[in-house]
Amino acid sequence: MQYHHPLFQHSIFKSDMFTAFRDDLIQRVSTTPQPENVLLQQAIPIVSEDIRELRTSTARLFQHINTCFERLTSDIKDNTRSQQLELQLRFGETLVEMAWQEYSVGIPPNPSVKMMEKTFGTLWRKNNTDTQFYYRRKPIYDVIELVKSEEAGVAEHEIVEYFEFHRQRMKLRKFSRKLNVALTSYKIQDNQISFRQYFDKM
Fold first, then answer.
1. 48 and 66 together in one domain
2. Are residue 63 and residue 98 in the same domain, yes or no?
3. How does pLDDT run across 52-89, given as a tens digit for each residue?
4. Is there a single domain that holds both residue 16 and residue 58?
5. Cβ atoms of residues 133 and 89 within 8 Å
6. Which residues does the chain have with pLDDT short of 50?
7. Residues 152, 121 within the same domain
8. Cα(152)–Cα(97) distance, rounded to whole angstroms?
9. For residue 66, what are the contacts with CB-CB under 8 A and spacing of at least 6?
10. CA-CA 20 to 30 A from 50: which of 3, 68, 102, 190?
11. Rg of the chain's alpha carbons, rounded to an integer?
12. Which of 91, 107, 132 is the last residue of a domain?
């Protein structure tokens, strides 16, 4: 590097000491970080710590929300369960249509037997009378469900009317036993016909 100002023509600027000083200064200047880089390096640890704290607080918030949601869900389920377990079976029904309605959609204000069985299993049945009554009606539920699966294009009310027609003046309990016999024999045979076709031949 050449210095053209007359001042630098002085012998001191040609000494080994100055030359060493000059080279050291040039080296330091070339390796000194720019101000924005210094600020960035100082800011990164602070930002990193803020992000870490934000993640921690967010995780705690989500955990709190999840706990509250679980408690709310549990309270709703317990409340719903306490109400739904009050289902009163209608022992006096004599029509296939009413028995099926009680099972499939429920007769207001009661929920459906199907939903109670799926949700609570046997817990909703308060005593042996409820259990016995449920199993007396179960063949009616089962055959209608079976025919619905076999004849998907047939309206549900038509299937119910079909069995009500075949019940005629037979009591519902006796008709349920007849359906149970038919269903049992139908299942153990290798039938190529539908249940209704099989039932018509009995």
1. yes
2. no
3. 777 787 878 878 787 777 776 665 555 555 444 555 66
4. no
5. yes
6. 82-84
7. yes
8. 19
9. none
10. 68
11. 43
12. 91
